[in-house]
Every structure is written in C-alpha cells, then in structure tokens.
Amino acid sequence: ENFSKNKIRHLGVEPSENVANEARKHGINTLCSFFNLTTAEKITSEYGLADALIAANVMCHIPDLHGVARGVDHLLKPKGILVFEEPYLGDMIQNTAYDQIYDEHVYIFSARSVKNIFNKHGFELIDVKQQSTHGGSMRYILARKGKRPVSPNVDRQLAYEDNINLHLKGTYDRFRERCELSRKDLVAILQQQKNAGKRVVGYAATSKSTTVLNYCGIGPDLIEFISDTTPIKQGKYSPGVHIPVRPYEDLKKCYPDGLLLFAWNHKKEVMEKESNFLDQGGEWITYVPQVALIRK
After folding, report:
1. What pTM did the predictor assign?
2. What is the CATH T-level fold of the domain 180-294, as seen in this structure?
3. Fold equal for 34-167 and 180-294
4. Which residue ranges of the chain lie beneath pLDDT 70?
C-alpha cells in the first residue's frame, strides 16, 4: 500500500482470491497466483524485471522453496535484491515457543538454512536484521553472488547460531524436553484453577493456540471459551479440542479469574489494553518462555 501511495511501480502476488481482491481495493496492483518460475515468466513478459522482491511471513508457508528461488532468479535484475522476513528458529528454540510449529509453517528458518538454500541458486545472504514481530523474526536480504557487498551482520549471525548449537541434534532433544515440561506445567496450573473453582478463558484464537491446546490436551473442561475480536472466528470452535470461540464483548461483560494468553507475541500491548483485568484481581497465565502466573 505504501508503494501505491508513493507512486512506486509495484505488483503484488497473492494466491488467495479474497486477499488479492482486498489488496486491489487498497490500490495495490495484484496478481492472483502462486509464486514460482511460471508466474515469474508471466510477470517478466508483462512488466519486465524487478529491482526488488519483498515477502513477509510467506516463505515459511511454501513447500517448494527451490521453485521460488528459480522464480526469483528469473524475475530479478542482475543487481536486484530479495528481502523476506519470517519467524526465527533461534528465537523459537531459546524461548521454547513450540507454538510456532503449526500446519501453515512448513519451515522455520535460520540464517544458515537460508544461506544454504539460496546458495544453490546463485544467491548469497548479504544482510540479516533481527525483528521483534511474531515473538522473534529475522529479515533476510539476498542478492546474486558478488553483485552487492555483504554486511558483517551475516557472519555475526552465523557465529551466533553456531554458538547456540542450532546445527546439533542435542539442541532439539533439549528443546523437546522443555516443551514437555511446559506442557506439564501449563496443564497443572489450569487444573489447579479448576479445582479451586476458578474460571479460565483463552485470549485470542490464534494459530498458535491450536498447537498449544492440542499438544497439551486442553479442552473446554479447563478453558470455558476463547475470546477473539475477529468476527469470522466467533461462533466456531477451536480445531481438535472444540473450545467455543466467542466475541470479545463476552469477555468484557464478566471477567474470568484467569486469562490464558495465546497472543503472547503481543503481551505488552495486550496487558496495557486489559489493565482493568489485573486491577480487578485477575491473573494472566502465560507459557512463553516458561509457564507463569501474572497478578498485580
């Protein structure tokens, strides 16, 4: 949308018809298609080569990354750049944020994995920039080999990943153990709340919540409902465990004793918005980076 407002020549690529139509309503020239070599060939025949390709929280959803890389190679100018941003593997491991793993996330990237994948297609990683979005993301900037200077950020990030042993199986064994402990602790807190006669409601019917609820075996016996502001989710049920999703207004009518925060990546903003909840004696239940009760 900023490209459109600033009269920058642009084209969006979006496979979902409803999302593509919404983008067009905002003045964004959008092609409804999956991005691959065939799509890149169509774009170049109609629009020519691109100076930059930009993607946010897209690459981790695409199974055929090599097909994407071939499309990028075809579409970019010789000194063009590819910029994309995704949830970062290092943050997921460090924070025991296992709820980053769900059906839409085919991959969770590290700097080294991005470097290795695109190296096979003649590209090199020229910069990385840490982002706070989605509970910890990384922005990757790539160009054809030798066409642009490489930032020292790249070697620093690769060294950091080696230092925290992202390349070793034992790191993931320990991650699994921490996930199992998190599951045990979260279920224990919810069971304690139930045994004490307290009401607990989930806050935000996120994709992350589906992973947590199913992995932990948490159902409507422990969580009364999930509050969500998105109309299309309301009146439905959480996949697998069938906890009802109800409008935010239902939460505001009568605060529960506890709120389980699924949108933990927006913790600061949510707790500022819901400050009255703590003021009235409520307790937040969080599970990233570890299970905790937050009260005033």
Report:
1. 0.91
2. Rossmann fold (3.40.50)
3. yes
4. none
